[in-house]
Design a protein that fits this description.
The chain has 2 helices and 24 strands. It is mostly beta strands. It folds into 2 domains: about 170 residues, Sandwich (Jelly Rolls); about 160 residues, Jelly Rolls (Sandwich). Strands 3, 16, 17, 18, 20, 21, 22 and 24 form an 8-stranded antiparallel sheet that branches. The relative contact order is 0.21.
Length: about 375
């Protein structure tokens, strides 16, 4: 453990008993695991009056996005880089073909709807709040029972669960809650061939190849091993808590991959065990990571004017943290009632066409209200 230097007026404990009239800012390296500095400023670092240039907080209202065209080839990214791409897609009828992503692992977060996912390994029944991890190369077909809306994360490296270290293997979620496909004693698919052929669409290097078979390609009658699609519902995640200290977002990590991490923020008690403990996220300039937050459900207490289905993007190099109204609301609050998905990326993200089409251009002004 590095021994920190201390200069000027500071508290003994980070995020607790902030000196009167100051605002704490955390400058961190390597997420929240590297070197750091806590700066105690006389003004909030988000009190800008104007921003000129491309570096600014952004807000996307994904409720305005309408999926059009083919699932396999017409998805426009909201945000992307060389490690990850983020999409939204909604559908109300079953796919008429099978799909295989040969470029990336996929995580489908179910924002709305329920139905079935048919795969090589069998069937998974999905519902709202499910994460579905689909390994690269898996053949699958989505069969919604009603209108289903997915937040889709493509990872160009293998997605894994985080190491839980001193918390133990049952922390956050017991591995026993993970659901794997049910083969039901034989291959199952509800797709009926109309002309004697079954179609597979394979995505490789961003291009689609169509492959046809005279029989249903979901013909696996048995499997064993350690690789398969996995389903995890947010209701089965039990967040790590501290009633005397505001834990960093990394404590809520759900998935990790090369150069990015996915965290899940869930309803939990606030920090009421110490009157001086901060309840809302501290201001921070996490210079090594871009931060993306998808707001799934509940009351988003650290942000005003945010509703379900919206996404914020806070890039490296500019501060972010709570708005004034959120700080005021937190003083008497005892718990949060929000479910949100955070995606932190080490390499800078670019805004795709889908994001550009639904951006709230005035979001950066919201800290002035």
């Amino acid at each position: 453990m590095d021994i920190p230097y201390v200069r000027g007026r500071t508290p003994k404990q980070a995020h607790v008993d902030i000196p009167e009239g100051t605002y704490e800012e955390e400058v961190g390296r390597n997420g929240f695991f590297g070197k750091y500095a806590h700066l105690y400023r006389s003004h909030p670092p988000v009190n800008w009056t104007r921003i000129e240039g491309p570096l600014k907080p952004q807000l996307f209202d994904l409720n305005q996005l309408k999926s059009e065209g083919d699932y396999s080839s017409t998805r426009d990214p909201i945000l992307w880089n060389d490690d990850v791409a983020i999409y939204q897609y909604q559908m109300n009828k079953a796919m008429e073909y099978y799909f295989r992503n040969a470029d990336a692992d996929e995580i489908l977060f179910v924002h709305k709807g329920y139905g079935n996912l048919e795969t090589d390994y069998g069937v998974l029944n999905y519902k709202v709040g499910d994460y579905i991890l689909i390994p690269r190369g898996t053949l699958y077909r989505l069969v919604p029972s009603d209108m289903s809306q997915f937040l889709i994360v493509e990872s160009f490296s293998e997605v894994e669960f985080p190491h839980k270290g001193m918390l133990g293997q049952h922390a956050l979620f017991d591995p026993a809650v993970l659901t794997r496909p049910d083969l039901n004693d034989g291959p199952i698919s509800s797709l009926q061939s109309k002309n004697g052929e079954y179609e597979i669409r394979v995505k490789r290097t961003g291009e689609i190849t169509k492959i046809f078979y005279p029989h249903c390609p979901l013909d696996v009658v048995g499997w064993k091993g350690t690789l398969s699609p996995i389903l995890l519902n947010v209701e089965d995640i039990r967040p790590v808590l501290s009633d005397r200290y505001h834990l960093p977002p990394s404590a809520h990590s759900t998935f990790v991959a090369n150069n990015f991490v996915i965290c899940t923020f869930l309803p939990r008690p606030l920090e009421i065990g110490d009157e001086g403990a901060m309840k809302v996220p501290f201001y921070h300039s996490n210079i090594d990571f871009d931060e993306v937050l998808f707001y799934h459900a509940g009351d988003f207490f650290s942000r005003d004017g945010i509703s379900e289905g919206m996404m914020t993007f806070h890039p490296q190099g500019i501060h972010h943290g709570p708005q004034k109204k959120a700080i005021e609301r937190s003083k008497n609050a005892t718990k949060t009632n929000e479910i949100a998905v955070m995606i932190d990326t080490k390499r800078p993200l670019k805004v795709g066409r889908a994001g550009e089409s639904v951006e709230n251009k005035n979001y950066w002004k919201s800290w002035q209200e």
